[in-house]
Every structure is written in structure tokens, then in C-alpha cells.
Design a protein that fits this description.
Elements: H1 6-19, E1 23-25, E2 37-39, H2 41-60, E3 65-68, H3 76-81, H4 84-87, E4 89-94, E5 101-103, H5 104-129, H6 135-141, H7 143-164, H8 168-177, E6 194-197, E7 201-204, E8 212-215, H9 221-225, H10 228-234, E9 241-250, E10 265-275, H11 280-296, E11 305-309, E12 319-327, E13 330-339, H12 343-352, E14 358-360, E15 365-367, E16 370-377, H13 378-389, E17 390-394, E18 400-404, E19 415-419, H14 426-437, E20 443-445, H15 451-461, E21 465-469, H16 471-476, E22 478-483, E23 489-493, H17 497-505, H18 508-511
Parallel strand pairs: 3-9, 19-20, 19-21
Antiparallel strand pairs: 1-2, 4-5, 4-6, 7-8, 9-10, 10-16, 11-12, 12-13, 13-16, 14-15, 17-18, 21-22, 22-23
Helix pairs in contact: 2-13, 5-7, 5-8, 7-8
The chain binds adenosine-5'-triphosphate.
């Protein structure tokens, strides 16, 4: 393995994504657009396969979960009811010298993180000095650590109170009192803090007075809530049951960065699970486990995932956690699991004047169901898969290779087929194999350059198998199949190829482990 610095590692992944047709900056010929990306020929395949793994695991594998595809535009009242019009805001502040805009909450959080770093350094220093070092004891008695800790608590409490009271002047004052400087200009010349709504709006209809403001949905969940009764009735669904959906969501993120981690246009995969009130904690625990397991089955490393339970809950939630993934820039939220009570359906009942209830024949009683939701960003998942799969290897003899160790079921191509040389009837046999396989598998054909170079190209794309047709193939109908990760080769009958690929690369290989 080569030792690459973390910041270079991330840069290398981004350029690899571009070089191998995974992700391009959007409208690049016009210099691109910040936080908007296009998926290329291989990226679209990988993304589709991840989506399919999610969809099948939810809809095909659960008799009580169905999928829908709601429109991106929704009646504007939806977003009043959901709380997005009034409360889907980020507090923003500008630095007058650099003219850069920041999220005030992020500036404060980063400041707190710096103080936490100082505590950790004190702990590390002391741990080196003393044998049998007791971290908890040190943290609760060391004067400097206690001082830092007090500072953090003060800042957090002030910030929490200010946000709850929507006191933006106080939020600014915290930034001033903490002496936070703009990382670009190095000055403390800050504007006032303003609330900024994250929803994109546009006009529906002609550009006249009648045209009404509509929003591009900032989450897919509301499309599920407004269709709850339609699905329940037409699907004769019995509680507990789920509705799944994948689709685009849009947020006017101010601090959009870290490649496809935070985008302005992204895709979500959400499932709302409707349950009997009082059973929601059981289901919350169930989905928490089930969703972590779904990620683990990808085989990218169990140590790369962890739970982060929310301590501060949104007013409508009675439990919430994130599944975090270790991205090249640290552990960050990948997926959220939320127990949302009956908040959303009740809000929609209130704003629409329609009953959104369920008659429970076992209880002989009607109620608004409680909801446990699982919500994951497809693009973030893509980045988690890509960044864990990307490896720069130094091979025996000093040779190097870049290999994408993608889970075979997610790889854009399952196999590449090569004739050893471009004559003697080898291309014809290779093409015949390709034609036979392509009904069942995504396969590709390559006859350019040496076989070694062709192997490297497929390694970089993440193709799990390379099938080479040589002169022996003409005689005994066998080929070599080379494994991407071990680089080992074995000879197999051409007639076995289809079943080998099915066993090793179909989604069943993942779904059967759930
Ligand atoms: P964050 O705290 O990172 O802004 P969030 O808590 O607002 O995320 P949710 O509203 O719970 O996120 O959305 C569910 C999932 O959608 C997230 O876990 C993430 O995977 C994905 N997601 C949210 N915002 C973005 C974005 N701007 N770009 C890409 N994916 C996103």
C-alpha cells in the first residue's frame, strides 16, 4: 500500500472520478458550477446500481413496503405544513473584507471544535507524562481542561438560547465575543446575521400576477406523507407498512463543498414506516440496526461506520440518530434514522382539512400513525463507496496500480472481455462471448494495447473480472478469468462464465446477506 496524505488522497479520488468517467463538474465547458456535478458513463451505472440495491432491499425484500415516485413540484401549502417555509433556514453572516458568506452556526461550531482540540492536546500531553494515566480523572480535575470545558458549555448554551429565541443579534455577538476571524481575510469585520431559507422557489404558470410561487422539494419525504392515504387504501396496506421513494431534492446550500458530499441538487432515498403509536421505539431500533447492516454488507470495512445518537432532538422527533461514515475528511453523516411521531401527518391533516388516519381492526380504533423514517443521500453514499474503494497500491517489484475495489454487484461493468491479440479469430470468439453475456450482465470489450494495460484500465474502473480469450480458447472452449483484487487468474469453461458472473456480481449476492 502506498502512503498518501489524507488531503492528497481526497484530491486523487476527485481527479480519478473525472478521469474515469464517474463524475464531471456540471457544464464544465463554461467553467462549471459550484456544488453541481454530472455523473458520467461509469458514474451513472454505479449510482443506478446503488439505487437498485437500496430499492430492492426495501421494496422487493419486504412484503409490507411499497415504492412510489412523486413529483418534484408539490402544492405550496405542503411546505407550510411541513415547516419548511418558516423554519428551513440557515443563519448567515458575511465578512465585509473578504466578501465571503458563512453559516454562523458553522463558524461557532468550528470554534468550539478548536477548543475541543486544545483539550485533546492537553490530554495527550499528560498521557505521555504519566503512567497509568486516567483520562476521565484528568478531564475532571485539570484546571486548564476545566476552563476550556466551561468555555465550550457557555458558548453552546448561549448559541442554543439565541437560536431558540431567534435572536440573530446575539448570534453575531457570540461570533464577536469568541473573536472568530474570517479564515480568508483574517479580519473580524462581520455583517449582521440573517436567516436564509434553503428552498429554491420558482413561478408556476405564465409570468403574470396569477403565477404562483412553487418550490423545488428540499426532501422527498413530503411526497410520501401526502400520498399516505392513497397508498394505504389502494394497496390495502396494513400497519406496520412502509412507503419508499428515491428522487431529486434541492437545497440552496450556502457552504456547499467537499465534492458531492453537500450539493445543491442531490438525490435522496427515503422510506417512511407507518406504525401503531406506542410501538415506534421498537421500530426505530429495528431500522437503526437494519440500515447499518445494509451498509456493512457492502464490505467496505465495519470500522468505517458508526452511530451518532442525537441529543438535541427536533421538536417533532422522539428519537433520532445518524449513521456516520468515515469520509476522507472525517466521520460525517451518511444517513439519518428518525422517529418523527405523528407530526407530519397531523400537520397535513390540519392544513388540508383531510383526515389522514388508519383504522386498526385489531384495536377497533382509528388513529394517525406514527412514523419512523430512514433517509440517505444517494450522492453521499456514492462518495462513501467511491472513497472506500479507491486504492493506490504498490505491487511486488515496485509497480503501482490504482484499483477501485467496488463491491462487484455495484461495479459499472461486471466483466471486460479481451482477445489476447487482434487476429487468428480471437476477436471473433471474444465478441461472441460478449454477445452471449450481455443479455444478463453489463460487460465491455477491449482489444487495444497490451493485456497488462487493459487490466490496469479495468482495475481503475473497478471491473471485478477480466476474461481473456487466447489460442487455447479456440481449441478447448476455455478462457482465463482474472480477479481484480487478488489479480489471480484461473482457467474456466466459456459455458460457465454466465453462472460465475451471476453468482459473484448480481445484487442477490448482497441482498442474501441482509
Ligand atoms: P446535513 O446535516 O449534512 O446538512 P441533514 O441533517 O440536513 O444533513 P437530512 O435532511 O436528514 O440531512 O437529509 C437526509 C440525508 O440526505 C442526509 O443524511 C444526507 O445523506 C442527504 N443530504 C442532505 N443534504 C444533502 C446535500 N446538500 N447534498 C447531498 N446529500 C445531502
Amino acid at each position: 500500500m502506498s502512503s498518501v496524505k489524507p488531503e492528497d488522497h481526497f484530491k486523487n479520488i476527485i481527479s480519478h472520478c473525472k478521469e474515469y468517467g464517474y463524475i464531471f463538474p456540471s457544464s464544465e465547458i463554461y467553467d462549471g458550477m459550484s456544488a453541481v456535478y454530472d455523473y458520467g458513463q461509469n458514474g451513472a451505472e454505479l449510482k443506478k446500481n446503488i439505487r437498485e440495491y437500496w430499492w430492492k432491499s426495501m421494496v422487493q425484500m419486504h412484503e409490507n413496503i411499497v415504492g412510489i415516485d412523486a413529483a418534484i413540484f408539490m402544492h405550496p401549502t405542503t411546505w407550510k405544513a411541513s415547516g419548511h417555509v418558516d423554519a428551513f433556514n440557515d443563519p448567515l453572516i458575511d465578512n465585509k473584507d473578504s466578501k465571503k458568506r458563512y453559516r454562523a452556526d458553522v463558524l461557532i461550531e468550528e470554534h468550539v471544535a478548536k477548543i475541543e482540540d486544545k483539550i485533546n492536546k492537553e490530554v495527550e500531553k499528560a498521557a505521555k507524562r504519566f503512567e497509568n494515566f486516567d483520562v476521565a480523572m484528568f478531564r475532571s480535575t485539570n484546571a486548564r481542561v476545566l476552563e476550556y470545558q466551561k468555555k465550550i458549555e457557555e458558548i453552546n448554551a448561549r448559541f442554543k438560547n439565541a437560536m431558540e429565541a431567534n435572536d440573530l443579534a446575539e448570534v453575531r455577538q457570540i461570533i464577536v465575543d469568541c473573536e472568530i476571524v474570517d479564515p480568508i481575510s483574517g479580519t473580524r469585520n462581520w455583517t449582521d446575521v440573517r436567516q436564509f431559507n434553503l428552498m429554491f422557489s420558482t413561478q408556476l404558470g405564465s409570468v403574470s400576477e396569477e403565477a404562483s410561487t412553487v418550490y423545488l422539494r428540499p426532501e422527498t419525504a413530503q411526497g410520501i406523507f401526502v400520498n399516505y392515504l392513497n397508498v394505504q387504501k389502494t394497496g390495502r396496506m396494513k400497519i406496520p407498512f412502509g412507503i419508499a421513494q428515491t428522487g431529486k431534492a434541492f437545497r440552496n446550500e450556502i457552504v456547499a463543498r467537499q465534492f458531492i458530499f453537500r450539493m445543491r441538487e442531490f438525490e435522496q432515498m427515503e422510506m417512511q414506516f407507518f406504525v401503531r403509536p406506542g410501538t415506534e421505539m421498537e421500530w426505530y431500533e429495528y431500522w437503526k440496526k437494519a440500515r447499518l447492516n445494509w451498509h456493512l454488507v457492502l464490505g467496505l470495512g465495519a470500522d468505517k461506520y458508526r452511530y451518532h445518537d442525537h441529543i438535541k432532538l427536533a421538536h417533532y422527533a422522539n428519537a433520532a440518530c445518524d449513521i456516520e461514515h468515515q469520509f476522507p475528511f472525517g466521520f460525517k453523516e451518511l444517513e439519518g434514522i428518525h422517529s418523527r411521531t405523528d407530526f407530519d401527518l397531523k400537520q397535513h391533516e390540519q392544513y388540508s382539512g383531510k383526515k389522514l388516519q388508519y383504522f386498526d381492526p385489531e384495536l377497533n380504533q382509528s388513529y394517525v400513525p406514527y412514523v419512523v423514517e430512514t433517509s440517505v443521500g444517494l450522492d453521499r453514499l456514492f462518495l462513501s463507496v467511491m472513497s472506500s474503494a479507491y486504492k493506490e497500491e504498490v505491487l511486488e517489484g515496485g509497480d503501482t496500480r490504482v484499483v477501485l475495489g467496488l463491491p462487484p454487484a455495484l461495479a459499472p461493468f461486471k466483466a471486460a472481455i479481451f482477445p489476447l491479440i487482434k487476429k487468428d479469430g480471437l476477436p471473433e470468439l471474444a465478441e461472441k462471448i460478449m454477445t452471449d453475456l450481455k443479455f444478463d450482465h453489463m460487460v465491455t470489450y477491449d482489444e487495444k494495447d497490451t493485456v497488462g494495460k487493459r487490466y490496469r484500465r479495468q482495475d481503475a474502473i473497478g471491473t471485478p473480472y477480466c476474461i481473456t480469450v487466447d489460442h487455447q480458447s479456440l481449441e478447448d472452449q476455455t478462457v482465463t478469468i482474472r480477479h481484480r483484487d487478488s489479480m489471480e487468474q484461473e482457467r474456466v469453461a466459456i459455458s460457465q462464465l454466465n453462472s460465475i458472473l451471476t453468482a459473484k456480481t448480481s445484487l442477490k449476492s448482497l441482498l442474501s446477506q441482509l
